Please model this.
Amino acid sequence: MMWFFKKKTISSLNRPLVSVRMEAVGGQGANSAGKILAEAAVLGSHYTGNHFSSFGSEKRGSPVRSYVRFSPNHLPIRSTSSISLPDLLIVFHESLIHSRNESLEGTNQTTDLLLNTPHLPNEVQLPKGTQLKNIMTVDATSIARRYGCGINSVLLGASLHGLSEIKKEQLLITLEKFFNKLPKNKIKNNVRGFKAGYKNTEIKSFNSQQASLEISEHSLPHLGWLNAPIGGLVLSPGNTVLKDNSVSRTGIAPQFIPEACCHCGFCDMLCPDYCFVWEKDPTTNTFLLQGIDYQYCKGCQKCISICPVEALIPAKEEEIPKENKKIHLFSSSTTQKIKTLWKDHHWIQSLKELTPEGRNLSFEKKLLNLKTYLKPDYSEVKLPKQKKTLNKK
Ligand code: SF4
Ligand code: SF4
Model:
């Protein structure tokens, strides 16, 4: 793949209409970023434009898309539909381009991609066949942590490289105005993050002819519409098969420091997803020995705020040691129970008969490794004996 290094802002003059789509998860501030950008275009630069966002369940961790359209030529904009062909696509978390297929929807040789990632543009792994005009990368998560600001401020600063129609000063004034209800130091932090985002953006042009070479294959989800078992069977009742919440994390997850923990249990009381795995000792005291099951954790950081001894600290996802990211943690007694139950089950056999041969083996192996399916043990349940009733006539 050939890359052309650029130092200057991407030239995008004479565009009659500019469409910006932001792909994020709840809590990253994509909606606010969209509002700020639209205000800078409409109120600040006197263009015509509009903005709206679409949410999942309006909570942290759910998918969010924010759409901004503006016309430097003052053309009337009547469309309020979602943007399917963006000129600039801003992705707030690198994992979204792999975990959420539709994040790169509608990109083509005229699209600029701005990605929050610590990698350089030529290191970004894109799904096979992706076509883009330019890739811009900025490590917005690290910058936001360094300056104590939102990821959205950093990405807004970086977005200026793909929006030559908007003046930097104008966007900065709008950002300050938008955050004017925050304490002064917070406003200052967001301004610093904005400037750092602008300064630290790497830009490279994408050679569209070679776009599908040297880039990774996009793997199918374990269970999607193409490979779901016949009849749409839910193999792990009450949840997805992998029970994986990690896609909804915003780049920050709690890191557990076992040495500092006093096993008070406050974190467990606050955690909405039951991520903490406790061990009972013979005296029936419970200890937080296993730590956090990261598959369930969505990075809301509530546990961090409550921990009285700083045994939970915010960390970038990639800073968390690999051995702590094991798929599903169980206390040792539960692990033993799973092993015992697992020995005699028959359901894998039925699964084999239901699913295509090719993926059967790997799928079966994965499930065996993950042990996500726990057959309920009814052996100890004593059902009351049914009394025989006589029909007395
Ligand atoms: S709140 Fe902190 S100290 Fe208390 S159990 Fe959780 S991690 Fe340990
Ligand atoms: S960040 Fe903490 S409280 Fe939030 S889901 Fe993860 S473990 Fe639970």
